[in-house]
Every structure is written in structure tokens, then in C-alpha cells.
């Protein structure tokens, strides 16, 4: 998927509360070296830099990196084009590695986890967020993905599952603590939210769902709407801290 397609900036703004939670969980200290993997437009990277850290943001989408660089003016933050399974960084070069809904999309999850562990210095920590597969937004994604046919490739890591995640990090002599959080998405109406997603989100722009799929997606949002006077849905996710 081309994450530079559409306008991911809209999604990034909605996800900013989760970036704040992840940065808080990392308990950063001024002067630490921080890497943000799948940094997108720079939410977590910029929060870390504002705390006095030296930050490197990594993402495969050049356009999003350009947005992040523009936002980072005056901060100690650099941005590099690369994928999570091939980080262009030395071993043990980060005191903290962050990934806010980023590394979870890596096609080769074990290789990406190995890279996160490789660049983390002894005594450092990895903080990542992952969606729990339940709720209206998860259903919406499933409907939109149906337009692309059945998934291909190897089974994905259950990033939200403490046991599965713990087993992956145990291979690198790291243990994991997982805590659940929730985030809400708002708009004027279910239709307004869907139209925005179809217009802006890279996944929707890449899949080009036909009208009948869009109508099924709208029905999911209407059924899950928590605000009769507008639109609000709540999605659960986890914050995982590996040491």
C-alpha cells in the first residue's frame, strides 16, 4: 500500500492522542536517542523531540517524510526513508524505539521485530501501539479490504495479543508489558466520516472500493455510532512496552 496516497495527515491528526500515550509510556528523558518507526507525518517523533530528545523518524513514504520535516523545524529530528524490516541505523543506537500504529503493518513482522530489538541499546525500551481487532472501525476496515479479495502472504503477528507479542520479543531476550487503551473518532455524521476516509485514507485510495462496498461500510458505521446527534465510535488498542 502507498501510504503517501491521499491525505494521511487527516488520519494522523485523529491518532495524535495515541501518540501522546505512547510517548508518555516511554518515559523519555532529555538527551535520549529516540527512533520512531513508521513515523508518518511525525506525531510521536515531534513529541519526543519537544522533550529534548534526539529523534530519527523512519518511514517508507517520501511524501509523509516531507510533511514531518516541515513540522519539525527547530527541533532535533531527522527523517529517513526506509522500511521497518531494514532500519538504516547502527546496532544499539536508540535508548527508546517508538512505533504508533506503524510497525504493525510491516509485511515481515518477525524481521521488523528483530530490527526494533537490534537498534535498541541495552537498558532501552520499545513502545508500540496496535489495534485490537474489534469494534466498528475494525469492521469498516474488513469491509473495505473485502474489495481487494482475500489476504495473501503469511499469517500476521497478533500484535495486540500479549502472549503472541511476548513470544516474538522473547526471541530477542526481551519481555513485554501490555496495557489496553481506547480512542474515539468523531465527525458530523457516519456518512461524513466515511466520505472523509474514502477521500483521504491511503488504504481506501489504494483499494478503490466500489459503491456497493461503500454502502456496506456506511451501514457498519451507522450501526456502531455512539452519538445520535453526530458521529462517534470508540476503538480499543494496546500499548506494548518491551525491555
Can you give a write-up of this model?
The structure is a single chain. The protein has helices spanning 8-26, 43-50, 62-71, 109-119, 136-146, 162-170, 190-200, 202-207, 211-224; strands at residues 33-37, 54-59, 77-81, 94-100, 120-131, 176-187, 231-242. With 243 residues, it is of the alpha/beta class. It has a single domain, classed as Vaccinia Virus protein VP39 (Rossmann fold). Strands 3-2-1-4-5-7-6 form a 7-stranded mixed β-sheet, sandwiched between helices. The longest helix is centred in the N-terminal third of the chain and has 19 residues, at 8-26. It is globular, with a radius of gyration of 18 Å. It starts with 7 loop residues before the first helix and ends with a strand. The relative contact order is 0.17. The model has no long low-confidence stretch (mean pLDDT 95).
List the SSEs and their pairings.
Blueprint (H helix, E strand, L loop, with lengths): L7 H19 L6 E5 L5 H8 L3 E6 L2 H10 L5 E5 L12 E7 L8 H11 E12 L4 H11 L15 H9 L5 E12 L2 H11 L1 H6 L3 H14 L6 E12 L1
Parallel strand pairs: 1-2, 1-4, 2-3, 4-5
Antiparallel strand pairs: 5-7, 6-7
Helix pairs in contact: 1-2, 5-9
Amino acid at each position: 500500500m502507498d501510504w503517501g496516497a491521499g491525505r494521511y495527515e487527516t488520519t494522523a491528526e485523529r491518532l495524535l492522542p495515541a501518540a501522546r500515550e505512547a510517548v508518555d509510556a516511554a518515559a523519555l528523558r532529555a538527551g535520549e536517542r529516540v527512533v520512531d518507526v513508521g513515523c508518518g507525518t511525525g506525531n510521536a517523533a515531534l513529541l519526543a523531540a519537544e522533550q529534548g530528545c534526539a529523534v530519527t523518524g523512519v518511514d517508507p513514504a517520501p511524501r509523509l517524510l516531507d510533511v514531518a520535516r516541515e513540522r519539525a523545524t527547530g527541533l532535533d529530528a531527522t527523517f529517513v526513508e526506509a522500511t521497518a524490516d531494514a532500519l538504516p541505523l547502527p546496532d544499539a543506537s536508540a535508548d527508546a524505539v517508538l512505533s504508533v500504529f506503524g510497525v504493525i503493518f510491516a509485511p515481515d513482522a518477525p524481521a521488523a521485530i528483530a530490527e526494533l530489538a537490534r537498534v535498541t541499546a541495552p537498558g532501552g525500551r520499545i513502545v508500540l501501539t496496535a489495534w485490537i481487532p474489534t469494534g466498528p472501525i475494525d469492521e469498516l476496515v474488513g469491509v473495505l479490504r473485502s474489495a481487494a479479495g482475500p489476504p495473501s502472504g503469511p499469517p500476521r503477528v497478533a500484535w495486540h495479543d500479549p502472549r503472541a507479542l511476548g513470544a516474538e520479543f522473547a526471541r530477542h531476550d526481551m519481555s513485554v508489558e501490555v496495557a489496553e487503551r481506547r480512542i474515539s473518532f468523531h465527525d458530523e455524521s457516519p456518512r461524513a466520516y466515511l466520505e472523509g476516509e474514502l477521500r483521504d485514507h491511503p488504504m481506501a485510495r489504494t483499494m478503490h472500493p466500489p459503491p456497493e462496498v461503500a454502502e456496506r461500510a456506511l451501514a457498519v458505521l451507522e450501526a456502531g455510532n455512539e452519538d445520535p446527534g453526530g458521529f462517534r465510535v470508540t476503538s480499543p488498542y494496546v500499548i506494548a512496552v518491551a525491555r
